[in-house]
Each structure stands twice: as structure tokens, then as C-alpha cells.
Design a protein that fits this description.
With 466 residues, the chain is of the alpha+beta class. It has 17 helices and 18 strands. The structure holds flavin-adenine dinucleotide.
Length: 466
């Protein structure tokens, strides 16, 4: 069926006001925030516009849209707020982009059970403001909190800056409501915990729009912390910092924020830094904050780290949610992106060292650096940033891919995981077998064909060789 016929079928199913075909709507939903899509725009090789943008107002609209698209044989691309950075959204001329941003209702907040249910399209900062008005917090603070949706967090298995104590999104999701490609509505999960067979929520977490559409999410909440303390230290090198962080978390302490910057990034954080900055935020009941600050202080002193002014952490708190403009960077000939991975404690130093060395060998590289920002009993993440200078527009994409390859090869070589929180999208799709093995990819393909036999949901993401 042609693009026009899909649009007619959708207008009939949902009413004309929810199906947009004007140029501005189509242009705004061509792709997400993937740096490579921005590079292709810059090169004048942009992603095509979709056939239409559908804005469902409720679950019934989502069901109707999926059924109409299925009958028309049209692919459907769920779109939260478009802050994804791995190419989870790239339109095609026959596709229906399902823009979830009109599903923006806070459905309920329960201050006794500490649960809140949101429409999937609720903006992160709106969700947090709604619970904050009742003295509560979700505690999920991705840097993109102001430009991402609750449904997008679930679809990408997102992580917030306070994750070391509060966990990642999978630790907060109590229930997921989703519409499967055939229009079936499922609500998976209820309360604090259940033993009811396999955890089907996990099928939707990280599904990147390829298995269905998330329409609602119930998150567990926390009471706003009574106290907060900030501390900053300097330590001689990355390996000593990793070892200190390992001791802190393995002793049972959980500073919600614990970030370690390599020398290059430390200098960017504070001109006085001459080695690696370690920044911590402690939160909770004041007794716990006091005890944690004192115990961590002893570990820090024993490791030979020295205190730095807490204003470094205050500045980070104030400026932490800056969203870079790819267009401005590309206009200056700068190819920039970030790549996040993780590894066990015993290998994290090798991943860091090899990745930074491999980046340094890329022609035109002007910065290749990393920090850690999410710590676990068994290991740590690393968040690499690279910047490559080139005025040759045609050289940008190969340079970009070379930098990604440098980081992922080093991570894979040392047995790390190839994504910590941004997901697979398109940029890591052909790397997924290294993470899951051939058997794991076969299993994922079987899940995909069981739920989405027509392959209509977000074709091109997540599944290798799709
Ligand atoms: C400056 C910046 C900072 C960032 N910081 C962080 C960070 O700290 N932590 C982190 O985890 N991520 C971060 N990200 C990445 C991004 O914000 C997250 O991946 C976020 O969860 C995406 O949400 P979104 O609503 O914008 O989703 P979108 O970009 O719209 O979509 C992302 C993927 O999810 C799918 N999807 C979206 N909504 C639904 C739905 N309702 N049902 C089914 N599929 C859906 C899409 O099809 C797509 O594959 C950052 C991004 C930027 C630009």
C-alpha cells in the first residue's frame, strides 16, 4: 500500500487531527539525536521524511494505529522525545512515526506505596516535578532528563546520574504497559515483587521500539533525601581511582553519584586539577550521610587521595544537564560523540588504557578521554568522549566509525559490555553478536519474529543483519 493510503487508513482509524503530514512535523521526526544522523544532514545526505507522524492521545489510539499500519503493511517507528543517541529512529518514506509526546498524563502518584504511573510520553522533568510536589523523587536523572520521556527510558534501559545508590531504570520499573504489534494490550508487573514465571517486563526493557509500543510505566519512588553532602578528591591516576571506588562500593557504601575523571577531563572540570578528580554526592537520612562521608573519607585518605574544593561538585550539579549542539560542532569541523561501556573491576583499567591509546592513533583526533559514572559491586562503567577535527565532510563518517571501533574493540578484547546505557540502535547493531554470542542473537531474532512476525516495528534497529 502506498504512503498516501496508510495516511488515509490512519486518519479513518484515529481521526484527522492525530495524523500529521505537514513538512515541519515530518522534518522534526526524521531521526533522533544520533551524531551520525547529524553528520549525514551536514553532508547533505539526510534521512528521508516518513509518510506521516501519528500523535496518539491514549492507549486506544495506539492500538488503532498499530492495527491500521499492520493492515497497510507500513512500518511503525515509536518516537519518545528523540534524545536517543544510537540511531534508534531513522525514518523512511513508507513509515509511520508514532510520536508519543501527546501521551503526557501523570496517571497516579501514591505517596504511601511510593509508586507512580505515567503515560509513556511524559517528559522526565515533568515526571520528577509531579512527584517532587509531594516530597518524593524518582531518583532517575539521565543527563537528558529534560529532553527524554519515561517510555524512552524503558525502551533504552537508561541510567541516571544517581544510579550508584538508586539503580538504573530496570531497578525502578514496577510495571510496564505496552501494545504489541498486533494491537494486544499487556500490563506486566504490579507491585514491589512477584515470582510469576519469567519476568516479561524484561522483554520490553531495552526493546528500542522493535517489539511493541510502551504506553504506560509504573515507577517506584523514594522520599526526597533529608541530607546531601558533596565531596571532591584528587587521586594520582585512573587505576588508583578505580581501586578506591572498588573499595568504597565493596565495603557497602553507596554514594548515589560517584564520578572519576581522567586527567584531560579533570582539567576541563577544574583548571587546578593535575591528576584525576573523584567527585561524590552522598544523600539520604542525615545519620547515613554522616556515616558514609566519614567512612569514605578514611578510605580516600588511606588511598593517598587529597581533598579538593566542594565547589567543583557544586558546579557539576548546576551544569550537568547541558545538551550539546551537533550542528554547531560540525560547522567547526568537529566530529564529536560519546560511547559508554562497562567492565568488571579487574579489567576496567585495561579497557580505559587500550581505548584511549587506540583513539589517539586516529588521524585528526584532538581529544579522546573518559570518566566513570556508575559503580557496582562487580565493576564500573566508562563514558568515553572523542573529538576529531576534519574539514573534509566526506571524511567525517569514516572518522566517526573508526573512533567507535577503537572503543568497542578495546572493550570487547577485555571482556567488557559494549553498551552501559545508551543501547544498540543502529550504531552497535552489528556488534551485538560479540555481546550475546551467536546463540543469543538467534534467541533475540526468535523473540522478534514471535512478537512481530511481519517485522513492522522499527525495522533496522537492534537486530543484527535485519
Ligand atoms: C545530551 C544527552 C544526554 C543523555 N544522557 C543520558 C543519560 O545520562 N543516561 C541515559 O541512559 N541516556 C542518556 N541519553 C540518551 C537518551 O536520552 C536516552 O536513551 C533516553 O532514554 C531516550 O528517551 P527518548 O524519549 O528521547 O527516546 P527516543 O529517542 O524518542 O527513542 C529512543 C528509542 O526508544 C524507542 N522508543 C521511545 N519511546 C518508546 C515507546 N513509548 N515505546 C516503544 N519504544 C519507544 C524508539 O523507537 C527508539 O528506538 C542522553 C542523550 C542526550 C542527547
Amino acid at each position: 500500500m502506498s504512503g498516501m493510503k496508510v495516511v488515509e487508513a490512519l486518519r479513518e482509524a484515529l481521526g484527522p487531527g492525530k495524523v500529521a503530514t505537514d513538512e515541519a512535523s515530518l522534518q522534526a521526526r526524521r531521526h533522533d539525536y544520533w551524531a551520525l544522523s547529524a553528520i549525514r544532514d551536514h553532508r547533505k545526505d539526510p534521512a528521508p521524511v516518513p509518510a506521516c507522524v501519528v500523535r496518539p492521545g491514549n492507549v486506544l489510539d495506539v492500538q488503532a494505529a498499530l492495527r491500521a499500519a499492520a493492515a497497510a503493511g507500513a512500518p511503525v517507528i515509536p518516537f519518545g522525545l528523540g534524545s536517543g543517541v544510537v540511531g534508534g529512529v531513522i525514518a523512511r518514506p513508507d513509515a509511520v512515526v508514532l510520536d508519543m509526546s501527546a501521551m503526557s498524563r501523570v496517571r497516579s502518584i501514591d505517596p504511601t506505596d511510593l509508586m507512580a504511573t505515567f503515560d509513556a510520553g511524559v517528559r522526565g522533568t515533568d515526571a520528577e516535578a509531579a512527584v517532587a510536589a509531594q516530597g518524593l523523587t524518582i531518583g532517575h536523572w539521565p543527563q537528558s532528563v529534560a529532553v527524554s520521556s519515561v517510555g524512552g527510558w524503558v525502551a533504552t534501559r537508561a541510567s541516571g546520574q544517581f544510579s550508584t545508590a538508586y539503580g538504573n531504570i530496570e531497578d525502578m520499573v514496577l510495571a510496564v504497559e505496552a501494545v504489541l504489534p498486533d494491537g494486544t494490550l499487556v500490563t506486566l508487573g504490579k507491585g514491589p515483587r512477584a515470582s510469576v514465571g519469567p519476568d516479561l517486563r524484561a522483554l520490553i526493557l531495552g526493546s528500542e521500539g522493535a517489539l511493541g509500543v510502551i504506553t504506560g510505566v509504573t515507577l517506584s519512588l523514594r522520599r526526597a533525601p533529608e541530607a546531601r553532602a558533596l565531596s571532591v578528591f584528587e587521586i594520582a591516576d585512573m587505576d588508583r581511582g578505580f581501586e578506591l571506588q572498588r573499595q568504597i562500593v565493596q565495603a557497602g557504601w553507596r554514594p548515589p553519584v560517584m564520578r572519576q575523571y581522567d586527567p584531560r577531563e579533570s582539567r576541563r572540570m577544574d583548571a587546578r586539577a593535575s591528576a584525576c578528580l573523584l567527585l561524590m554526592i552522598h544523600e539520604g537520612p542525615s545519620g547515613l550521610v554522616g556515616a558514609e562521608t566519614a567512612a569514605v573519607g578514611e578510605l580516600v585518605a588511606a588511598a593517598g587521595a587529597t581533598p579538593m574544593p566542594a565547589e567543583v561538585a557544586e558546579r557539576w550539579l548546576e551544569n550537568r544537564n547541558h545538551v550539546p549542539s551537533w550542528d554547531q560542532l560540525l560547522a567547526r569541523g568537529l566530529v564529536v560523540d560519546t560511547v559508554e561501556v562497562s567492565a568488571p573491576w579487574s579489567r576496567i583499567g585495561s579497557v580505559y588504557g587500550d581505548a584511549v591509546s587506540a583513539l589517539a592513533r586516529i588521524p585528526g583526533l584532538i581529544a579522546g578521554s573518559a570518566h566513570s559514572s556508575h559503580a557496582y559491586r562487580s565493576g564500573l562503567n566508562l563514558y568515553f568522549t572523542f573529538a576529531i577535527q576534519t574539514d573534509d565532510t566526506e571524511a567525517m563518517e569514516p572518522a566517526y566509525l573508526a573512533a567507535w571501533r577503537a572503543i568497542l574493540e578495546a572493550t570487547d578484547l577485555h571482556g567488557g559490555s559494549l553498551s552501559h546505557h545508551h543501547g544498540i540502535g543502529r550504531v552497535r547493531r552489528e556488534w551485538l553478536e560479540r555481546e550475546l554470542g551467536a546463540g543469543g542473537v538467534t534467541l533475540l531474532r526468535r523473540v522478534k519474529s514471535a512478537l512481530d512476525p511481519r517485522g513492522m516495528m522499527n525495522p533496522g534497529v537492534l537486530i543484527p543483519n535485519a
